Amino acid sequence: xxxxxxxxxxxxxxxxxxxxxxxxxxxxxxxxxxxxxxxxxxxxxxxxxxxxxxxxxxxxxxxxxxxxxxxxxxxxxxxxxxxxxxxxxxxxxxxxxxxxxxxxxxxxxxxxxxxxxxxxxxxxxxxxxxxxxxxxxxxxxxxxxxxxxxxxxxxxxxxxxxxxxxxxxxxxxxxxxxxxxxxxxxxxxxxxxxxxxxxxxxxxxxxxxxxxxxxxxxxxxxxxxxxxxxxxxxxxxxxxxxxxxxxxxxxxxxxxxxxxxxxxxxxxxxxxxxxxxxxxxxxxxxxxxxxxxxxxxxxxxxxxxxxxxxxxxxxxxxxxxxxxxxxxxxxxxxxxxxxxxxxxxxxxxxxxxxxxxxxxxxxxxxxxxxxxxxxxxxxxxxxxxxxxxxxxxxxxxxxxxxxxxxxxxxxxxxxxxxxxxxxxxxxxxxxxxxxxxxxxxxxxxxxxxxxxxxxxxxxxxxxxxxxxxxxxxxxxxxxxxxxxxxxxxxxxxxxxxxxxxxxxxxxxxxxxxxxxxxxxxxxxxxxxxxxxxxxxxxxxxxxxxxxxxxxxxxxxxxxxxxxxxxxxxxxxxxxxxxxxxxxxxxxxxxxxxxxxxxxxxxxxxxxxxxxxxxxxxxxxxxxxxxxxxxxxxxxxxxxxxxxxxxxxxxxxxxxxxxxxxxxxxxxxxxxxxxxxxxxxxxxxxxxxxxxxxxxxxxxxxxxxxxxxxxxxxxxxxxxxxxxxxxxxxxxxxxxxxxxxxxxxxxxxxxxxxxxxxxxxxxxxxxxxxxxxxxxxxxxxxxxxxxxxxxxxxxxxxxxxxxxxxxxxxxxxxxxxxxxxxxxxxxxxxxxxxxxxxxxxxxxxxxxxxxxxxxxxxxxxxxxxxxxxxxxxxxxxxxxxxxxxxxxxxxxxxxxxxxxxxxxxxxxxxxxxxxxxxxxxxxxxxxxxxxxxxxxxxxxxxxxxxxxxxxxxxxxxxxxxxxxxxxxxxxxxxxxxxxxxxxxxxxxxxxxxxxxxxxxxxxxxxxxxxxxxxxxxxxxxxxxxxxxxxxxxx
Length: 1033
Description:
7-stranded mixed beta sheet
């Protein structure tokens, strides 16, 4: 080891430049981290530069700072980041880029590594007197690249990427097989077909070449305070740290900052902080972590209580603020962390705005997300991509610019196409879906006709074999391929009952730190959209070897309880098993069997059997299902007595044809068998949580449901009070009891709506490591359980795989040294929580997309599926919020009352609002049933949304017997009336007419035919007449 001195110039807290001398040690044993090493460098076993690479990439400091997102592409591997480069990125770039490099290095799939060249005796370059920093950095990178090539004995070429043309001209031919190329030359030489990388390069180059931007000094943004002042202010309580959440319905006017803890000790409130207007937001973007200064209380304002329709980012109605209920109000004074991501955007559909491109080639694009401001990018493709959705990234937001600056990344496709819209949803939720790599597939077993997979006899000997002793079956939704849970129940000779939950043993196939494990960790969850899913695991596991398919031998993780006749737990056993599922059933078939119906045609395993055998097996299966239901009722009753809250979820199933056309929107049927399976899974998760917490009290993975914030119950309390009910939200037990009492015999939908509002008030359930929270925070509020985790779905949730490993270590079947410590586990939990939220948002967005597509081609004036009964559950100063029982959807956007058309005024009281026209007035009360018409509001820049207009102030009565269906909503087994229209018959009739009248009939009809009723002026005048008569009556 050689001791030297390093001379640095750093800035102190006063901003002054100070010369510092530090000791610097050079070593000869710095690891190179390449598998091609012949010198025997020390290694920790994590060498990531693989021998099959054709070349290694060594980017210089400037290239890494400017073009890092090209280097992040999964196709580009074998990157050697030097210590000199990392220091430059950290001190002259930004912390986000530095963290991205660290993540790349930790991910073996990227095949990147860091070489500490400044500590390597033979690769270190001392800075010469008078040498510029940039010159020294370039020389250091080049000398390290040359040393690395010689260290590997010339086995692989080195490509140094730099944008310095003088340096390239001077050193390009100096060392053989050490090439110096610009980023553009490198991409065109080695990746000529990687169009995505070339597009990003052109966009970044155009952005970097513009040294000036169009300034708008009239906006009035303020400079951010220095980080030192912000940190000191947050510690002292003068400033508040939090995350910005923009109101998507009022993105220009209102945002909230959710506190991260601390700040303004004397304010006496923990509520969110309102940021009113763009000036007060001061260039903060939704998701940024900011520092906020509270305004004087005289300047505090309330929330906006009026509804609006936003069109292409422009709010169409004036905001009305609730001045009677003000909240803490502040302004952003600094950015602590930028959380910019990829944004889907499109060019303006307005030809005037589209053509208004600056001389510098800059153009404004409109983000798909209403909460994000317009972004100025440099591109010359605005004309060719005018009807496309594109991905853009924000680079900066100068204080003198009205809009942030960014660059074009890639195009997603034409606006309006299904695949484009689905891709937009995935990008907006930061969900990256790529094919499983060849390396992942190779490390997994195969199962084909030529090479069938079979269970290993040695592995069977280590497990408990349940194939012949237990009747095991699965109950899942129709079309389910990833069957990860099965059940069993049997009567024991001693009169007790044995309940078994058997879960796919995914951890047997997915070993820690394998490529499959790393990919599953990255994805964290399977993403379910309305018409498709994106698996967390490769298909060979998710749909085959790990799926508990009927009639196939499979490895499982089982929990077996011995229950008394009263269903009290006497004993419990955990362990690895071998099972063979006897039946794969759907929810509907299992419920029908319990109800005494003939379901033999719905159970494929019964085909071809004798009648006596069929009857005997149905009796066995019926006993098992009935016993399960009885156990589940007991378990649920026990949880509810402890305070479990029965909430109401809203879920729409999209029925698609073979051609992926939308045939119907059907609310998910609520069957008792759904609750039965859910209770068994909750029971298993609870007992596994108890076991792993006892074994590993400081690093077990659990899931908790924090207490909801009381202000989130305001709407629930308001709605219940309108009907004379009082809801106690002090505890989960009191809330559950209060909701049970809120029953309106005349309006069965009332209780359903209250439970839905209670669901909206809840906090999100989160994964956590037990060493990160105190014991009193382990509690799951919604389920009323002291400990809870996820164990039952390892095929689609990575958290369950971790829990499986913890459980096996707890029962001493696996080694503990493979488990994560508390800090690593908590970081993983944060990652999984983020991915889960993204998957949930994507699923909800896809359902909204398909709802819009369902109504898009339907005439709202003639198609009776567009006219529905609606229930008012919220009142605003210019409209109401409604619930649609027929489709079980709640409208979170504006439902207008034709204020403009009828020249009417709206007067709002406590529980009603009155719309006054020139000839009459109509009063609407909370939970009134009205008739609404559904149409689609198309948008060029954003996703199309469903719009709801008032038809009549009376309930809608249709031929679909909706009233009877509504009255049965509270039953455990709910039969929901389908809301289909036979469009195929209409198409057939139209085709038959066209065949009779000739092929040119449609063309002649478009020229000379009579105008359709809903488009004619006569029909429009007739509607005005009818509306006038309705008002008079």
